[in-house]
C-alpha cells in the first residue's frame, strides 16, 4: 500500500488523469483481489499517465539553494552538483507537461540515496490520512486501516525514533530592534515600513501565530480567523488585542491580550498607533493591510522577514515566521514570568509551551 501511494503521488505529478488511473486500478483490484498493490498496471499507466509529448531531450530546472558562502563564483557548479545528487526531493525535470522525480525510482529500482532523503513519519501519516479520506468520501473500503499498514507505521516509528527536533530559532529583542530599524530601507515605501514594524512587534509581544495575523492568499477576504480592526484597542499605555480564533480555540471563544508599552523602538503600542494613523479606510476590515486595501499574506510576512535578515547580513538559517512566537515566549521566561502567565498569553492548553523556551539564544 505504501508503494501504491508513492505511485499515485508520482502519477499526480505527471498527469491530471491520475484520479482515473486510481479508480480503474481499484476496480481491477476488487475484481481480482490477488493482484498486488505494489505493481504498476502497465496498460492503465500507459493509457492515463504517460504523455505522448515526451521527447528524448529534456531540460533540467533545478531548484536554487541559498548558501551563506562568500564564494559566489562556484554557486552554479555547486547547484549543478546538488541537482545531480538530488533524488526523492522532487527536482523538476520537464518535458512538455511531464514532471518526473527520482530517476532510480522511475526505472523501478531502489534509490541508493534514500537513507539520506527519507520521508519522515509525520509526512507518511499525513499522506495516509489523505488516502483514508479519499476512501471514505468514495464510500469504499478504507484499506489504510489494514493490519499491515498499522504495523508498517509502527516500524517506521521505531526506526526514525520519536518526534523530530524543532530547530526553529527564536527572534531576540535585539534582533527585533535591529529588524524594525532597517525596515525603512527594506520596504518599498514608508507605509509598508510602518505596516511591517507594527506586525513584527505585535507578533513578538502577542506571541501570535502567523496564521492569526495574515491570510494565506492575497485575494482572500475576511476568513474569520485573522485579526480585524475591531479586535484592537489602544489605551494610554496598553494595547488590548482580542484573538477571536486560534489553533487551540477552534470554536472562537476568543481571548483578550494586554500588551504594555515599553518605550523602546520596538514598542508595540507606539508602532500600532503610528500604523493606524496611516492605515487607509476601506471595506477590508483586516487589521493589517497594504495601502491598496489588500490583506497581508503569510508569504509577504516571511518575505520581508528574510529581506530584513539579509540586510543585516544574518543568514536566514532556522529563522521562520514562527520565530516571533518562540522569541516572545523565551523573552517572558528570561524575565522570570510564571508558567501560568506564559501559557495564558500564548494560548497554550498544556505544557507544550516549554518546547518554545530556548534561553541558550539569549
Give a quick summary of the entry.
With 362 residues, the protein is mainly alpha-helical. Helix content is 43%, strand content 7%.
Report what the structure shows.
Mean pLDDT is 77; it is low at 51-101, 113-117 and 218-223. This protein has a three-stranded antiparallel beta sheet with strand order 1-2-3. The chain has a three-stranded antiparallel beta sheet with strand order 4-5-6, covered by helices on one side. The two termini are 47 Å apart. By secondary structure, it is mostly helical. The protein has helices spanning 2-14, 18-31, 42-48, 75-85, 103-106, 121-138, 147-160, 173-186, 190-205, 268-278, 298-311, 323-334, 339-346; strands spanning 59-61, 92-95, 98-100, 232-234, 238-243, 255-260. 43% of the residues lie in helices and 7% in strands. The relative contact order is 0.10. It is elongated and about 75 Å long. The protein has 13 helices and six strands.
Shape: elongated
**Contiguous helical run count:** 13
User: What is the percentage of strand-forming residues?
Assistant: 5-15%
Oligomeric status of the shown chains?
single chain
What is the averaged pLDDT score? Answer: 77
Radius of gyration, CA atoms, in whole angstroms? 25 Å
The chain-level structural class is mainly alpha
What is the string of helix and strand elements?
HHHEHEEHHHHHEEEHHHH
Largest sheet: 3 strands, antiparallel
Number of strands: 6
Low-confidence stretches: 51-101, 113-117, 218-223
The rounded distance between the terminal residues' Cα atoms is 47 Å
Helix percentage: 40-55%
Largest beta sheet: strand ordering: 1-2-3
Organism: Mytilus edulis (Blue mussel)
InterPro entries: DNA_brk_join_enz, Integrase-like_cat_sf, Integrase_catalytic, Phage_Integrase-like_Recomb
Keywords: DNA recombination
Protein name: Tyr recombinase domain-containing protein
Amino acid at each position: 500500500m505504501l508503494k501504491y501511494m508513492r505511485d499515485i503521488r508520482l502519477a499526480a505529478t505527471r498527469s491530471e488523469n491520475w484520479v482515473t488511473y486510481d479508480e480503474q486500478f481499484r476496480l481491477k483490484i476488487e475484481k481480482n483481489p490477488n493482484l498486488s498493490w505494489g505493481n504498476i498496471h502497465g496498460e492503465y499507466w500507459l493509457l492515463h499517465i504517460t504523455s505522448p509529448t515526451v521527447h528524448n531531450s529534456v531540460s533540467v530546472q533545478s531548484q536554487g539553494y541559498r548558501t551563506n558562502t562568500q564564494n559566489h563564483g562556484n554557486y552554479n557548479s555547486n547547484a549543478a552538483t546538488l541537482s545531480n545528487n538530488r533524488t526523492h526531493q522532487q527536482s523538476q525535470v520537464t518535458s512538455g507537461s511531464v514532471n518526473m522525480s527520482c530517476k532510480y525510482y522511475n526505472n523501478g529500482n531502489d534509490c541508493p540515496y534514500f537513507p539520506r532523503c527519507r520521508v519522515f513519519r509525520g509526512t507518511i501519516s499525513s499522506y495516509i490520512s489523505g488516502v483514508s479520506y479519499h476512501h471514505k468520501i468514495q464510500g469504499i473500503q478504507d484499506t489504510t486501516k489494514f493490519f499491515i499498514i498499522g504495523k508498517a507505521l509502527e516500524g517506521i516509528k521505531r526506526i526514525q525514533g520519536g518526534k523530530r527536533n524543532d530547530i526553529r530559532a527564536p527572534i531576540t529583542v535585539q534582533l527585533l530592534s535591529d529588524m524594525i530599524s532597517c525596515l525603512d530601507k527594506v520596504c518599498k515605501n514608508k507605509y509598508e515600513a510602518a505596516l511591517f514594524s507594527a506586525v513584527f512587534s505585535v507578533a513578538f509581544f502577542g506571541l501570535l501565530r502567523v496564521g492569526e495575523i495574515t491570510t494565506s492568499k492575497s485575494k482572500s477576504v475576511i476568513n474569520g480567523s485573522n485579526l480585524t480592526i475591531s479586535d484592537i484597542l489602544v489605551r494610554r499605555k496598553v494595547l488590548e488585542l482580542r484573538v477571536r480564533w486560534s489553533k487551540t480555540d477552534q470554536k472562537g471563544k476568543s481571548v483578550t491580550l494586554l500588551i504594555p508599552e515599553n518605550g523602546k523602538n520596538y514598542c508595540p503600542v507606539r508602532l500600532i498607533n503610528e500604523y493606524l494613523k496611516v492605515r487607509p479606510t476601506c471595506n477590508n476590515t483586516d487589521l493589517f493591510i497594504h495601502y491598496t486595501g489588500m490583506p497581508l499574506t503569510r508569504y509577504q510576512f516571511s518575505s520581508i522577514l528574510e529581506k530584513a535578515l539579509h540586510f543585516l547580513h544574518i543568514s536566514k538559517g532556522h529563522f521562520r515566521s514562527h520565530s516571533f512566537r518562540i522569541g516572545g515566549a523565551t523573552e517572558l521566561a528570561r524575565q522570570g514570568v510564571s508558567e501560568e502567565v506564559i501559557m495564558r498569553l500564548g494560548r497554550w492548553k498544556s505544557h507544550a509551551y516549554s518546547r518554545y523556551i530556548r534561553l541558550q539564544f539569549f
